[in-house]
Design goal:
Helices cover about 65% and strands about 10% of the residues. By secondary structure, the chain is mostly helical. It has a two-stranded antiparallel sheet. The longest helix has 29 residues, at about 5-30. The two termini are about 25 Å apart.
């Protein structure tokens, strides 16, 4: 398995934990107003996760917390900063179609972790960011 892919997996786990904690806190606030658990599963959590990741990638260091810890960064193939549209495309593809495509072509993606299906779709790639 590619070293960059290992870093991406580690960063993803950290980001899931952070997003889960924030979603949990917000869900408790929203639960007081909306009692339907399905609303939280299908709307609140994905929306919060999308907003957290988009905010982190579009502002400041342009990295998520996990990416900072594992010293990687998502960059645009054209060298420009990531556009919000590009980030949204990447997240939507990653959450829907990418798992199937990754599984089908796992030998290719295990060799080079810099470009996964969501990166191909959004025109991005991941690089190791040196301190």
């Amino acid at each position: 398995m590619d070293e960059l892919l290992k870093r991406r997996i580690g960063a993803g786990i950290v980001d899931l934990l952070v997003q889960g904690m924030i979603s949990g806190v917000l869900e408790q606030t929203v639960l007081k107003r909306v009692k339907n658990k399905a609303v939280h599963s299908l709307i609140t959590e994905p929306t919060v996760n999308f907003l957290i990741e988009t905010t982190q990638l579009a502002t400041g260091s342009r990295q998520t917390i996990g990416q900072r810890l594992f010293q990687i960064q998502v960059v645009s193939k054209n060298g420009q900063p990531l556009a919000v549209k590009q980030i949204a495309k990447r997240i939507a593809y990653r959450e829907t179609i990418a798992p199937i495509k990754t599984w089908k072509n796992r030998k290719i993606y295990l060799q080079d972790g810099s470009v996964l299906p969501e990166d191909e779709f959004a025109g991005t790639h991941v690089v190791r960011k040196r301190k």
